[in-house]
Amino acid sequence: MSELSCTPTLDGLIPYEEAVEQMVAAAVPISGQTAVELREALGSVLAEPVVSTIDVPGWDYSAMDGYALRAADCPARGGELPVTQRVPAGVSPKPLEAGSAARIFTGAPIPAGADTVVMQEVCDELDDAVRINTAVEAGSNIRRRGEDISAGEEVVAAGTRLSPQHLGLAASVGVARLQVCRKPRVALFASGDELVMPGQPLSPGKIYNSNLFTATALLQALGCEVIDLGIVEDTLEATKDALRRGAAQADLVFASGGVSVGEEDHVKPAVEALGSLEMWKIAIRPGKPVAFGHVSATPFIGSPGNPVSLFVTFVLFVRPFLLRMQGRDDWRNRPMTAKVDFDWPRPDKRREFHRARLRFDAAGIARVSVHPSRSSGVLSSVTWANGLAVIPEGRSFRAGDEIAFLPFSELLT
Length: 413
Prior knowledge:
By secondary structure, the protein is an alpha/beta fold. The chain folds into four domains: 16-31 and 183-325, Molybdenum Cofactor Biosythetic Enzyme, Chain A (3-Layer(aba) Sandwich); 34-56 and 156-181, Molybdopterin biosynthesis moea protein, domain 2, CATH 3.90.105.10; 61-143, Molybdopterin biosynthesis moea protein, domain 3 (Molybdopterin biosynthesis moeA protein, domain 3, Beta Complex); 336-411, Beta-clip, CATH 2.40.340.10. The protein is built from eight helices and 26 strands. It has helices at 16-25, 164-172, 210-221, 236-249, 267-274, 307-325, 380-384, 408-411, and strands spanning 33-37, 50-51, 61-62, 66-69, 79-87, 101-104, 116-119, 123-125, 129-132, 142-143, 154-156, 177-181, 185-191, 195-196, 207-208, 225-232, 252-256, 275-280, 284-285, 291-295, 298-303, 336-340, 351-360, 366-370, 387-391, 402-407.
């Protein structure tokens, strides 16, 4: 494994950009692929490109309901032509007789010899004929063979995370099975003697293990297979045991809690005992004590136990790392710009990713407000928010200033 070479700030913290770049650089794409049915492929990462063996459409077809004809047969407005055939979608038409028209419907193949479709709204249907009440322009309302896709064309690139539209596109070229990358296996545990599972009695001093469900859902949204190692008691040996078990069966070990330096925080020494701790303490708020290293050869990421810190550090560090493991290059967060609806008079030494809500005012201008609490224990602030406002180090804001905003719609997929 490569050594990380981040440059700490004056207070010993690693700058955010440098930390995430170095972590992602250490992500090794996972090996292995499998063939899956289209119905099972949603959210998977494509291992081999989808290449069309056919033209789409496979023939010239009508873009609307109307009449197919030769433009030269109807040179003037008000011309009449006999209707010699009816062509619905899904049939193979006969060649068009000279001086005639064919009743045709959307998606139906154009009869040989026809070069135009006239929409039915500008026509009068007669007994066995049609009157064309408009000037006819050759080539109108025809979709050409191969207009969408040509045979031999790559339609979905390898490394694409498959969305519904990708599956529809693959189906449109006749592909029934896709070669996809193996899902990353992530071993997950939470440290803390205070944790109990939902549904159990909550005795004094105990809290429910919300982090398990937040982290599991975040991982599943990225197409990961989650290995639940449960709640780990606050001892060095129990922590080492969980790390060993996770490293033996997963592509990544992710832990919440126990990454600080208190007497009951055992993750840092456990990782150092079993492998290497290559990064610790990032210049961000919340989530300063993010840990990155390896247990044997398996990468490890540890987040603080506070639920907001876990959420924020996951989308800032774990998500990019996993996307890179899946062979994707689009791992960088893509902020949008909005105007602030608040004052931020006191700059911080660390970059803050504050829970925020974006709205559009009556003039269509994007504006951002922030949750009143900066506490990393207020999980309800994450459901209140629809993104994160990025407050750079040493920066103050006044209402109306521009700010970078990371929407959850970008961060949770």
